[in-house]
Amino acid sequence: MKICVLVKEVPDAAVEKRIDTSTGRMDRSGEKNLNPFDTHAIEAAMQIKEGGAVPVEEVVAVTMGPESAVRALHKAVSLGADRSVHLSDEALAGSDVAATGYALAKTLERESPDLVLLGQQSDDGECYTIGAVVAEHLGMPSLTQVIQIDVEEGKLRCERQAEYGYDTVAVELPAVISVGDAINEPRYPSLKAIMGAKKKPLDGLAAADAGIDASKVGADGSMVDCGDFTDPPQKEPGQIIEDEDTAETVEKIVAWLEERKLLS
Amino acid sequence: MSDILVYVLHYQGELNKNSLGAVSEGARLAGELGGEAHAIVVGDGDDLTEDLAASLGSYGAAKVFRARAPEGLAQPVVDAMAKVMTDNGHTYALFGGGLLGFEVGAGLAARLGAGVTMEVTEVDVQDGKLVASRPILQDSKISKSRYKERGVIIGRLNAFEAKESGGGAAAVEDVEVELSPQATKATMVERGEQRGEDVDIEGADVLVAGGRGLGKAEGFGLCEELATAMGGAVAATRAVVDAGWYPYSTQIGQTGKTVAPKLYLAAGISGAIQHKVGMQSSENIVAINKDSNAPIFEFSDLGIVGDLNKILPKLTEAVKAKKGG
User: Fold this and answer.
1) Of residues A124, A127, A141, nearest to B186 (C-beta)
2) Number of structural domains, chain A?
3) Mutate to test the interface with B, among A164, A171, A231, A252 (most CBs of B within 10 A)
């Protein structure tokens, strides 16, 4: 079995996120990291590989993004992926969710994976729809927010929480599965793995290498225009108490609650 | 022609409240566009009766398409909606909040080559076209989406209010759908399993909610003691319910319950959007979290940066003393 894991570089959670108002795109400069949700997808791949229910020949990390996205691939490899693929092309800049999903699907086609895993949502754009777009282009079944995967020959048994409780779904391979963060506790990479990450094979691809139709990607190839950024109605900022003396803090909370008649 | 097709989710003979909101919203927008709002229901059970489908007329659907296909999974719905939109020339697809809508909407956009926007909180008509507003970057900005051709609009949970328009039963048209190969490769083994006991939290005036910051399942004991002292109930986030710490029936947010108590006290909850959408209408929100950068502090009325293990027991004692005295 061959597993591809889609990963993404996102601004570090500690860095304030902003829009570049001149281009209408996310300002992706500043500190970057591997999307935290993607570490769960890599861990899920590693657990399938190490679990031994089916032999896994290879785990491949795949990303689309500017040159700096290589760092997300290094992180993915340090967490256990065997090699990585980096799709990077000026023509892809400004792609919407549908165009991004199309480009990733074309890149995945070259790899012919039996299973595509990804994190349920990316931290910056909240596009937890990308899995469904990729699956549609690949003609594969797909499921999001999966919190348990059992692998058998040629199929998966997946559990997830949906609108009316927990669903158990049988999925034939090949398939595209987005995992939820409850699926596992990602491991920390060893120092040796971090040092060795840059030595693992990394394929750099341009859009044409992946057979991507340039008219279907980038801002021009996207079917939605986003812009007119405005500020939402501001809610009065709440009062903040830093707890130093807990007895005093609790007194303040009780007074606050009493003032609003919440303790009567 | 600018018609809108609205997906309506149902389960065990009941229509989903967020879907009904989307039908009402679709009817309003179609009125402004000079088109019609149609609904589509997809299912293979006896509960998907003609009467149930026709009842969508009272929320403003001019016509209801009914497709017999497996329910609870996205790809059969993509097949049904793509066929209906292609055969009837709908320009827009509209979804209420919820997990399935995200999956269906994204797949549909890929199939039809349409633009797609998720987490939409408002839709307007400008120059005869729909424009969708969507909060981005942890709700710190609003972005507007315009569609080059077809548009797929996926609402945020509770974004659209269900309103009975006084319309009568809608005409129901049965459609035959040929499933795509991918739609036949996933099958529901069990749907809607309830994990943990059935607890009613929707009527409580006070909710003490716990998240991953409680550290372990036993941490909920602190929430229970405070809730008991305050005469309230205990709620939970998806992360801890998925982890098996607390019953699914107490879960707030995207795939859980929506509540608006007088007091919502969040302990160890970071305040992800998926949680926020289920509780942001609470009258008073108090948050306790050790991370001063937690998003929940941006929409709480009182925020305490500190260790809940120290604060909750003392708060419980103090509340007991006040209530007893």
Assistant:
1) A141
2) 1
3) A164
